[in-house]
Amino acid sequence: MYLTRFRLNTARREGRALLGSPHRMHAAVAMSFPELPTRDGAGPRVLWRVDRNSAAEVVLFVVSPTRPDLTHLVEQAGWPAATDTPGWQTFGYGSFLDGLTAGSTWTFRLTANPVHTIRRTDDEPRKRTAHLTARHQKGWLLDRQAASGFAVAEKPPSARLLEHGDELQLVVRDKRELRFAKAVERRTVSLTSVTYDGRLTVTDPAALRRTLTQGLGKAKAYGCGLMTLAPVR
């Protein structure tokens, strides 16, 4: 497995176009691999996520079973003339994944598409719909944490600002309503994404490795589902 970091140049028209269309970004990421892994749901897949750290720092992260070649992205939407990091950085991910142990604690970031299915009447088909409030979006992640191999860490009582509802080291932010056309299929895709930042404890290393390499939730082709970990500082 590999983890790749690519800094987008938002001053370039193609960079802005990619950020405005998850469908175009998905295609650009897919073009980075001579052969894409099968998507039968049983093994690792290509996942990607865009982190908008500031107006000048927008970073594309890619996790993949094989090493990507992002030459075309550098030429279209990167910094080909920069002297420090003109291209992209790819790191081996396998040793990090193999080193995860139960009880270890990490900070995490996840951009996801929190949805559920509802129906208004008994004879109506169930319909997938987005969770729209931060409370329900937080609940979506907490409902999946055990099966995904982690537990969101609790705050110490001295760090809590509220009497109730402020127990966890978890923030939901950057809600985005995405709507874009898929020309080939002649339809419009709408989805809601949010970003979770927090701290977690590993409860099941194998399940967490599966989460980190296969993604969490729906809309993985459109920049959702990729969780990354970082050391606690």
Describe the structure.
This protein has 233 residues and is α+β, with helices and mostly antiparallel strands. It is built from 6 helices and 11 strands. It has helices spanning 13-20, 22-30, 71-77, 94-98, 134-148, 205-214; strands at residues 2-8, 47-52, 58-64, 88-92, 105-112, 115-118, 127-130, 150-152, 170-182, 187-202, 227-231. Strands 5, 8, 9, 10 and 11 form a 5-stranded antiparallel β-sheet that branches. Helix 1 crosses helix 2. The longest helix has 15 residues, at 134-148. The protein is globular. The mean pLDDT is 91.
State which percent range the strand residues make up: 25-35%
Structural class: alpha+beta
> What best-fitting shape do the alpha-carbon axes yield?
globular
The biggest sheet amounts to: 5 strands, antiparallel
- DSSP E strands, number: 11
The radius of gyration is 18 Å
